[in-house]
């Protein structure tokens, strides 16, 4: 009896974590649409209240769940729509939450990090142009990250996943009056879309194989082939958000927004979302050793390459970005080996450590000064290991590889360059055929000086 | 920018070096960020008059010369500028008052109307929208003078003004169309401009990223775990590093180019030759190429010219190497992009971009002006061309120049009014001062001094440059490298060491440092990083404490530091024997007693402290505390090259207390009584706390004076914090001083606080004179206060000359840096600091891979009113004129009007302002002087800039 009351309370708290920030976000958005944009101070107050309540809810839920003994909870709130015959082939979108150890770890992390980074941002973003929008995006991010972690089905997870992606891209492009942030926001968005394609396909594969898109907590798999296909698709889907090889190049470029957004997205939550997807769906692909090998391999390549590239980075945030890629690579390997508990511990510890490092990124110079004053000397030289181990020629090639970030951009440019040439050829063909049929239709690019056209009203009054 | 004259055939090498030198002057001259020093952003243009320089620089650097026009219009609406100020400003620049033509108003009247009732700020198609969608063609503009109204009424038909307005618009549009030149051609200087025009692709996006990665690696001072191997010259290293494997399609052909045996100079000349540039064109190409990334190019130049200022060891760096690799990359990438888009690229320039002037804005302005001036369509038909030209000539920079003069004038009148009144009714110094305190001249100390004197009028305060004449290279205890604590233009000749008494816990600190280093490196590596991450959950404590409870976290951290690496008592090695030679590096180890006595005497005579010494004389340097702030050094003492001035104060007090020094002073007829002790201290302008040095060496009587003084200083600190807090929008108004102080301190330990204090944001005036001229005045933290007593100066005012020679450039440097950073955040300032990303320990970028951002960030200049420094000196115009004439540096600043000068006659108190054509008497014109009972009453419940005010005199007079 008591147990079920507690369980219901936990569910209520978890739902609050999704709903409260979403409500706050929607309220502000509605006010804005109706032309009554709240003052930054009001919005900050609302955000403060929401972050506090949501964080406390998440933490209390986590605590109660552990006290309860940790049995998974699965609660359906009904379904949104369904298609087809209930008995035969059909598709239904259920709104349900699943709470188990994996989601609880992520939920508690979301609570702690959104709470602290939210409090940080409220002071940091004071009087900044667009601060209101920033807080709104942070609220939406909190809601979507919570939704992502408690979703019972892959469908609902996809909703949270997409919202995380869009808030992330918008926060990268926060300073939209400069071209860099917008370009890099778009890059992240494009990579997310490619990976989201894989997630959607995985969803279809799952539905075909099991007849529903519920996420099991126990190993339950139908057939080796679809497990492998599903697993590989899920792996590809996860690579974008977690910035694993070969999709790492956007992460250092994402450091365009204000420091706290870099911290929460790329130090903490968004970057571990890929790992969550793997952990959540592990029962569905664990039986396929091909997938497990692929997960380990991707993790290994990312960690090794990230570690090499990270060593040559000379700015605070890129250096942290690659350090994060390395650790997430290791987490992938742990997941691939089936060490879920270790992976979860690693995620929790790494997210918190890295967030704090990101928030303190502007202290780099001061830290260096403190260090040198303690040592009473210039800081000792690092990286001498490479110089001892490797011959000069190899060393230099390796260094350029690190400086140029594993040539990810170069390869992409070659690939997209060919693609672009093909598209351009189509364009030219199109233009030529157009000219064939209607020579006047060709757009003339030469500019003409602007002239003052008398508006209709003027003509009227003169008449 | 000067370019060699084309008639002279020139050696290409000389031309290149010339061009580089000129272009280098226009690059940001900011040293690595930990050595931030305020300087005139447009120092390279100081040979030109201010207004002219602004326009030249705005062309050269594509920057804004003045504040945005909307801000000025706002200032007009709030009364910060009055129509009277605008008229005076127009008169100042000699705007003609004769009619433009028969039946037309004068240029003066035309411009007054233009500035006081501005038309809607619309251009292009928006003008058509305005005509169609508003009642612009139905209703006459409001604000017509009666005469104008009468004329417009005459022109209107019986059915209202519609017909009048419509034909007026037609006439205006015709005039505007005729005025606008059909087409303007701009030649391409860089290949990149040509490619951008023909293909729509900006090669700078790629080249900048590539160059930034390389320069970041080459210049890095200790961020990368694995530094770039063998950095032996920028171009040589570039050749080696990028000469082996290039995968990027945009860099096809780079490898072959790099095998050619050019050095940097050779490569640059080769590239310039390929571009078909003749030696006389080098200037333009070099300038434009370096301006693609001015921040990085400027840092390369800093590494070349001032390797001593870099935080670690500077690799050999030259600007010409950078130019060479940039020109090479520009060409290669342009060629590849052009090839891939299938367009032709002509290396030797050729094409040009055509731009068209927009007639809409001119037509609109003409239309509005014509109504306000009561002109008829017939007038427009007759004089359309003339009027359109009048409008076109008075473009936004020209209008803003006038607004700017009015903006400055309004403020200046306020300052000179109150000084004129005070000069004839001074509040004298206290008769028997309890203590005398020498502050830095910094305008942030103005409020502290005033609050202190208000609660204890028997304290006498002075202002002197914060290095206190101890221009030393300081080797602090435990500091890894020595720092110069003197103005950046000087190179110190003396070294002062701080040594611990006893062992000093050095080994313990070293062990702590080694641990710290290991931890810092570890989190970014693979294996150690994973162990740290697994244990990372423990850092949740730090994260939560630091973000939610910053003061508590700081208390714990301080306590921990005390246990792990306790502070140790130290002393200065200050004195050297008369015959001790300089060391190998040309520095003397300390000062002889004669040198010390000279320093002490020059300060005491400079501030006018030569008699009635109190038992305690405090020398108070200053610094500022903040966390998570890469720009921290900009908040410290400007006179100490961005260092804290405490060491200078401490050294000065030691000198002044030495019996030997006192003896020499006495020989020089400066008798400091034995009952007087000096003490050095450092005021923290962010926490308002004071750190005291060598207290244990004080005599017992001096010690008891100090003990009695401390509560008063604490109280003044709280009041100062209270006054500062009114400017922080996140601190509520109406707090008690004690609460305000905790708010102020909290800001200095909060990682999330982008505004630990407002630094020099309110600087505007510099008063050089006796304190009696400013005592009891509320100057709103806007005035540098320099003590100077004209009654003890010699006939030629050499003391004043020395003071102005030091204060002029420093004050102007701070003031102009704020000016430029405020008027153009993108080109002169560094924008908002929130996305700043530290690079190589020497600078910050905006987020990822941007140009290095130099200048001041938005959070320190947001309050700033950009105005030139107004220097008011207590001297006769004749004396001042003579100093300006004989001192080259001052002359340049004053004659070119980079600073404005006013004089207060020491005897009569008459105030004169140096107009363009000589000193003119300042007229008060019936304006009233604000009065207030106390500072607190004047500022409380107010967040804005406040007028300067006279405080109640009684308490001060009681102390005399």
Structure description:
The complex is a heterodimer of chains A (463) and B (960). Chain A is mainly alpha-helical and 463 residues long. Chain A has 3 domains: 1-152; 192-362, no CATH class; 404-435. Chain A contains 17 helices and 2 strands. Chain A has helices spanning 2-33, 40-68, 101-124, 131-150, 154-172, 179-210, 224-242, 250-253, 259-285, 289-311, 316-337, 340-359, 364-375, 384-389, 392-403, 408-437, 456-462; strands spanning 73-84, 90-99. In chain A, a hairpin with a 5-residue loop joins strand 1 (73-84) and strand 2. In chain A, helix 10 (289-311) packs antiparallel against helix 11 (316-337) and helix 11 runs antiparallel to helix 12. Chain A is globular, with a radius of gyration of 26 Å. By secondary structure, chain B is of the alpha/beta class. Chain B is built from 35 helices and 24 strands. Chain B has a 6-stranded mixed sheet, sandwiched between helices. In chain B, strands 4-3-10-11-12 form a 5-stranded mixed sheet, with helices on both faces. In chain B, strands 5, 6, 7, 8 and 9 form a 5-stranded mixed sheet that branches. In chain B, strand 20 and strand 21 form a beta hairpin. In chain B, helix 10 (203-219) runs antiparallel to helix 16, helix 20 packs across helix 28 (700-725) and helix 23 packs across helix 24 (550-564). The interface between A and B is large, with 124 and 123 residues.
Summarize the structure.
Chain A has helices at residues 2-33, 40-68, 101-124, 131-150, 154-172, 179-210, 224-242, 250-253, 259-285, 289-311, 316-337, 340-359, 364-375, 384-389, 392-403, 408-437, 456-462; strands at residues 73-84, 90-99. Chain A is mainly alpha-helical.
